[in-house]
Amino acid sequence: FKGGDTCEYLLSSGRFLGEKVWQPHSCMMHKYKNSEAKNCLLDRHVAFIGDSRIRQLFYSFIKLLNPQVKEEGNKHGNILFEDKSASIRVDFLWYPEVNGSMRQRIKSWTEDSVAKPHIIVAGAATWSIKIHNGSNEALAQYKINISSIAPLLEKLAKSSDVYWVLQDPVYEGLLSESRKMITNEKIDAYNEAAVRILNSSSRNSKAKVKVFSVSKLIAQETIMKSADGLHLPESSRDTNAMILMNVYCNKIMKPIDGSCCQPQPPLTLIQKLAFCFFTLSIIGYLIISLIHRNNYRKNKSCTDLESGEERKPAVSTPHVSTLEMLLHSFCKLGLIMTYFYLCDRANLFMKENKFYTHSSFFIPIVYILVLGVFYTENTKETKVLNREQTDEWKGWMQLVILIYHISGASTFLPVYMHIRVLVAAYLFQTGYGHFSYFWLKGDFGVYRVCQVLFRLNFLVVVLCIVMDRPYQFYYFVPLVTVWFMIIYATLSIWPQIVQKKANGNCLWHFGLLLKLLCLLTCICFLSYSQGLFEKIFSFWPLSKCFELNGNVYEWWFRWKLDRYVVFHGMLFAFIYLALQKRQMISEGKGDPLFSSRVSNILLFISVVSFLTYSVWASSCKNKTECNELHPSVSVVQILAFVLIRNIPGYIRSVYSSFFAWFGKISLELFICQYHIWLAADTKGILVLIPGYPMFNVLVSTFIFVCVAHEISQITNDLAQIVVPKDNSTLLKRLLCIAGFFSGLLLFSAVQDQSRH
User: Fold this and answer.
1) What positions belong to coiled-coil segments (predicted)?
2) CA 674 to CA 656: how far, in whole Å?
């Protein structure tokens, strides 16, 4: 289903999501702030010409520029508005009928010596119906008059944006006696005449008068709330003004969440090179596959002519070479990246705005939680936060986050605060997992570091290239990458303290605690030194990784929001492993973690703490204030959950394989959702099947999960090739990777220069 001309859809079709949110067919509408509207209309002249309905649209339009404007002045006269700071001029010209006077005004703009308005919004009909008592002669005259105006409007459309607003229906039951002749039947006849006559002589698509017919659809849903049956309620007028702003401004401002009327972005140099690379990989893989197939046919089992028996060849099934595996992985990846590009960069598939309702969030949550319980299995080991349990934890959290994103639940503050805890829990696991590995294994080698960095960053680096997005855009990956390097640096610098060394002397435990205290001090210092933090990450080439929209504020905000939770994860891992080593906890199958009395007390405290946090998060009134407290208090609910999940022996001994399966691909799910499940960089929803929302979600979700699983396998395969265990080979690969990123920086600089 091709998206088609989204401008045409924006002006002519759509539906209401709820009572006040208008959803254009196939595209997303941006909600313009007054600062954005002023930037778009800088040095522009806008003219509204028509009757009282056009005057209403005029007022709603200028309120987007200045919300303080009041609807005052002569109702049956011209009204002028000017914003001198932005050199914006918006005029309303009172011409309630399509007649000679309106024609004369429009004709004056067609003269070469006169400055033409950049935007012209015109429309009238109800006065003609009213004055002439709905006579057929008036309709015939209207057709003659609009026929004389149409060529002038088409001439203006060559250099200006010209919109003809069709007449909205009326609510006949509320009309006063003097307006009873204005019927919906008459209005339909006038609209039909306008649509048939306008653009009838124009052959140039760029010189067309744009028919603004969407207001009719909006009015059909809202006109019953009108005060007089003729004029639209304020919310509907505001929607029409916002549509008008989107039609004109989206191609200028290019908002991420405003896909209507936006042209497809041109391919960058890096994108073209990526396309060539993937094309060559596909061709190379096909050639190698054909060669292997021919060799296989030659070595196929053949019949011994003497004995008549089937004889197997001596050669066994050929071993898959590294080159073939590499080309195979890039071949699959190339096809997947094509799908990514088509979904979120090409104007091929439709996109729609999100709309939050409690049912759209909570019903899927209950459904997946019930589904997860049906897949309960016994764990292979019964340790605290064992592998199956952490995969399960990641899985259900990721599914909740996905539902949160597609339902637009970020607008509901209690849900937002709980989702913030889930993101913090991921980082808690980062601190817990990497600390445990380094503490127990003592492996600080380059191979381990490169493996982790590759698995975390491979998909994001590819998407940065293919989708032309900065690294910081996928904020979670930079976050876990930087925290991994901080954990590595903290534990690897002299003196390297690991469990094997600490077992010989208890003083080493205090040494490690001192290291953790130094880390906490650095975190606190940076969190209160925004200037220093931004200076550190503004140095080139770090700035290329952490800048978003020209500054590193977004990176500062994301880092600061969960600044303590990784430290909490490391500290928890240290305490747990110390207790485990001294056999102060019982991790047998079915056994409670502590003695019955201690376990019950800790369980009670954990449940109370968990519920207390939820009550506090649900009572939040101000997002900024709650975000300030979040770094310090999020660990309460995380630790409460860990204890509730692990103290009872039975609960610790089982896990949900359903959630664990999703947990193994949680990183890929989190990143892939940006472009092939959601749309417009997470601001909207991808529509593969228009008109069937539930079926669309099912189909797009199935493809999305399959793609994420496939990318996870590709990443694992490539990690074995790109990051070998042999140190000398690994060094050569690292030099190649350094060369690749140097080239990427060079091409990026060329791109930036050409853009400027």
Assistant:
1) none
2) 26
Q: What share of the chain in percent tops pLDDT 90?
A: 82
Given a contact cutoff of 8 angstroms between Cβ atoms, the answer to whether 47 and 58 are in contact is no
Residue 311 has pLDDT above 90, yes or no: no
d(CA 666, CA 708): 9
**Whether the Cβ atoms of residue 49 and residue 80 lie closer than 8 Å to each other:** no
To the nearest 10°, report the CA torsion of 645, 648, 652, 653. -150
Tokens describing residue 23? 């959803």
Q: pTM for this one?
A: 0.91
The pLDDT, as a whole number, for residue 300 is 61
For residue 415, what are the contacts with CB-CB under 8 A and spacing of at least 6?
A: 361, 404, 409
112 included as an active-site residue: no
413 is written with which tokens? 């503050």
Is it the case that residue 390 has pLDDT exceeding 70? yes
**Cβ–Cβ < 8 Å for 50, 125:** no
Higher pLDDT pick, 256 / 207 = 256
| Count of H-run helices and E-run strands, the chain | 29, 15
Q: How many CA atoms, within 13 angstroms, populate the side-chain half-sphere of residue 283?
A: 6
Region 415-423 average pLDDT: 97
What is residue 115's DSSP assignment?
Answer: P
- One of 13, 52, 147, 527 is an active-site residue; which one? 52
Contact 232, 56 (CB under 8 A): yes
> Out of 228, 443, 726, 752, which one is annotated catalytic?
228
Q: What is the mean pLDDT of residues 171-177?
A: 92
Under the banding of pLDDT at 50, 70 and 90, the label for residue 3 is very low
Q: Is 160 a catalytic residue?
A: no
Q: Given this model, what pLDDT does residue 308 score?
A: 45
Residue closest to 474 by CA, chosen among 484, 486, 464: 464
Q: What is the 3-state secondary structure (H, E, C) of 297-346?
A: HHCCCEECCCCCCEECCCCCCCCCCHHHHHHHHHHHHHHHHHHHHHHHCC
> Going by C-beta distance under 8 Å and a sequence separation of 6 or more, which residues neighbour residue 537?
543, 546, 552, 555, 556
* pLDDT tens, residue by residue, 699-716: 999 999 999 999 999 999
- Report the alpha-carbon distance of residue 222 to residue 271 in Å, rounded: 46
Q: Show Cβ contacts of residue 222 under 8 Å, excluding neighbours closer than 6 positions.
A: 232, 233, 235, 236
* Average confidence score pLDDT of the chain: 92
Distance between CA atoms of residues 200 and 204, nearest Å: 11
How confident is the model over 29-37, as a mean pLDDT?
94
pLDDT greater than 80 at residue 201: no
Mean pLDDT of 376-380: 95
SS3 of 478-537: HHHHHHHHHHHHHHHCCCCCCHHHHHHCCHHHHHHHHHHHHHHHHHHHHHCCHHHHHHHC
564 vs 139: CA distance, rounded Å: 73
Between 328 and 2, name the one with better pLDDT.
328
By CB atoms closer than 10 A (0-12, 13-18, 19+), residue 204 is exposed
Catalytic residue at 257?
no
pLDDT, mean of residues 631-648: 96
In 10 A of CB 363, how many CB atoms? 12
Q: Report the distance separating Cα 748 and Cα 751, nearest Å.
A: 5
In angstroms and rounded to an integer, the radius of gyration of the C-alpha atoms of the chain is: 33
Q: Per-residue pLDDT averaged across 447-465, rounded? A: 97
Which residue of the set 25, 30, 45, 231 is catalytic?
231
Distance CA 644, CA 592 (A): 11
List, as one string, the DSSP characters of 665-717.
THHHHHHHHHHHTEETTTTEEEESSTT-HHHHHHHHHHHHHHHHHHHHHHHHH
